[in-house]
Specification:
With 255 residues, this protein is mainly alpha-helical. It is built from eight helices and no strands.
């Protein structure tokens, strides 16, 4: 610090083209552009982490479905073993409720069609909840480069005005506005790239969860229609092989 103070006192040149100085020269437009991009970046990372935890929770709960749910004698008892507010429990409870509702109907609507439609509607609700926030990521990935480009255009415009007023393109007249323009371009890309990567990553995990939900829904439908007789093969534990019978001891050879 002492060396810096000595150089400053001796009249050493100071950098007047830093980030803060570029924003100050850009004025309201530069500050507004940076604030908008900052909000977009914060929202993108917030959605990434919250959706990742939500997806991880559903995938972890699927392990419980595979190991304990189908070992229960009835769907109602199996649903009681699942976590509350779980996507898997919601599917089971919606299937049970659809079965109870069909028993009260007086028309000739087939039970399979009614149960299939109810479970499909439940799946769609879960998938829609998982997809929440992804449109924001897509919007940020598509628009943030153009917002940065807007700041770039304004910076270049200010550089041209400075050149026109000075009558010459000296570096001290255009360095600030051009630096501001480059900063806005970099910020736009810095916000867009993580948003696009997060969108593709979360979308791929949502497709995997949707496949698991569809398979589980079909298993629940088959179990209800068969009155509990049909269960997934993964639920049944492999039978242990019976121990081989001991061979009788060989008789001693006669002399």
């Amino acid at each position: 610090m002492l060396i810096v103070d000595i150089l400053a006192a001796a009249g050493a040149p100071q950098n007047k083209f830093g980030f803060a100085e570029a924003l100050e020269q850009g004025g309201f437009i530069a500050y507004a552009t940076v604030i908008i991009l900052g909000i977009m970046s914060f929202g993108s990372f917030y959605i990434l982490f919250t959706k990742w935890f939500e997806q991880s929770k559903i995938l972890r709960q699927f392990g419980t479905v595979r190991t304990t749910f189908w070992k229960a004698p009835t769907l109602r008892e199996g649903a009681a073993k699942l976590e509350k507010n779980s996507a898997w429990r919601q599917l089971v409870e919606d299937g049970i409720a659809a079965e109870d509702q069909h028993a009260k109907m007086t028309d000739s609507l087939e039970a399979h069609d009614w149960l299939h439609g109810s479970l499909a509607r439940s799946e769609a609700t879960i998938n829609a909840r998982l997809a929440g926030g992804l449109p924001f990521l897509a919007t940020v990935g598509a628009t943030s480069p153009f917002i940065g480009l807007f700041g770039t255009v304004v910076g270049i415009y200010r550089a041209l005005i400075a050149i026109g007023l000075a009558g010459s393109a000296s570096i001290d007249k255009v360095a600030g506005p051009v630096g501001e323009a480059l900063i806005m371009t970099a910020l736009g890309l810095l916000v867009a790239v993580p948003a696009v990567l997060a969108y593709n990553y979360l979308q791929a995990r949502n497709k995997r969860i949707a496949e698991l939900l569809t398979g589980f829904s079909n298993d629940v439908l088959a179990n209800i229609n068969s009155k509990g007789a049909v269960k997934p093969s993964i639920a049944s534990a492999p039978a242990k092989a019976a121990p081989a019978a001991a061979k009788p001891a060989a008789a001693p050879a006669k002399p």
